[in-house]
Write a structure and sequence with these properties.
This protein is about 45% helix and about 15% strand. By secondary structure, it is α/β, with parallel strands linked by helices. It has 2 domains: about 190 residues, no CATH class; about 80 residues, no CATH class. The strands form 2 sheets. It has a 6-stranded mixed sheet, with helices on both faces. A two-stranded antiparallel sheet has the order 2-3. Helix 5 packs across helix 6, helix 6 packs antiparallel against helix 7 and helix 7 runs parallel beside helix 9. It is globular and about 60 Å long.
Length: about 300
């Protein structure tokens, strides 16, 4: 698949920056410690929603048609990622495979999946954490008849903290990832002093002057501002939704429900933001709705 195939779809700064085969080769090496030989082909197959002209997942690609890698970028902590990636990988395989062959007796070979999340939010998070699909399964202890019961399905996601200063050895292996980490750090620093728009402009100016993603930012500066404005507005919605969900849990006196409330709030925030975008509202109009508390 052509690396430019999704350029007309609404994407994130992260997926735009890393949406080139050679940069993905570098990123994969940093994440796994395995260098992909130059003769091995990287094909990007990121999922897109044709109707709404937006990407569904952040990045997915194959390595020599033997490995399929799904990478999500997050600035908020979401424990539902394994479930989402399960749904994504099913759709990726559906795109890859000839359905007619599934009914043949001869076994078909499929690329081995690998799952990663790169986190750069402000909440505290370890350098590395594994998230497992099985933790989302409902308790079925009463139905287990055998002592040697084994889960019939599992999916493991490796989550890495890519905030500047975290996982230094990994970031040192990918100049692009390290530069992206610095860029986001500068955005957050400027946000403490300036408006969002001025913060983004100052961060871009700083990085270009210091040769940090300079070519990318020169070519995509205005796009970066638009995309990050959308992303940060969605974070604002998610934060408000989470706060409301946690408050409801506290009022009910259910301490263990707070974490569940956070997850539900995050998902509702994402869906609400995407719903307003699909209705044709601009980011500024969405922010105005937030400020008026029109949705709560």
């Amino acid at each position: 698949m052509d690396a430019n195939a999704n350029k007309n779809h609404k994407s994130s700064v992260f997926s735009t920056l890393f949406g080139e085969p050679e940069i993905l080769r570098e990123l994969y090496s940093a994440l796994t410690g395995i260098d992909i030989p130059a003769d091995k082909t990287i094909n990007i197959n990121t999922l897109s929603d044709v109707l709404f002209m937006k990407q569904i997942n952040d990045l997915s690609f194959t390595v020599d048609d033997k490995i399929v890698v799904l990478i999500e970028h997050q600035s908020t902590i979401n424990n539902n990622v394994p479930v989402r990636l399960l749904m994504y990988i099913a759709r990726v395989y559906e795109k890859m495979l000839d359905r007619n062959l599934l009914h043949h007796s001869k076994m078909i070979q499929i690329p081995t999946p690998e799952f990663f999340v790169l986190y750069n939010g402000e909440a505290k998070f370890p350098d590395h954490k594994e998230l497992r699909l099985s933790t989302a399964f409902k308790n079925i202890e009463e139905f287990k008849l055998l002592d040697n019961f084994k889960l019939p399905l599992e999916l493991i996601v490796h989550v890495y903290n890519i905030n500047h200063g975290r996982n230094p050895e990994m970031l040192a292996k990918s100049k692009t990832l390290d530069s992206y980490s610095i860029f986001i750090k500068k955005v957050n620093e400027f946000k403490k002093k300036f408006s969002l728009d001025e913060s983004l402009k100052n961060a871009i100016k700083y990085c270009i002057e210091n040769d940090i993603l300079s070519q990318f930012l020169r070519e995509h500066g205005s796009e970066v501002i638009n995309m990050l404005t959308d992303e940060l507005t969605m974070e604002e919605i998610i934060a408000i939704r989470c706060e409301d969900a946690c408050e409801e849990a506290r009022e009910e006196g259910i301490e263990e429900g707070i974490e569940k409330g956070i997850e539900e709030g995050m998902e509702k925030g994402r869906l609400y933001f995407l719903e307003l975008l699909n209705q044709g509202l601009s980011t500024e109009e969405i922010k105005q709705r937030l400020s008026r508390n029109a949705v709560y």
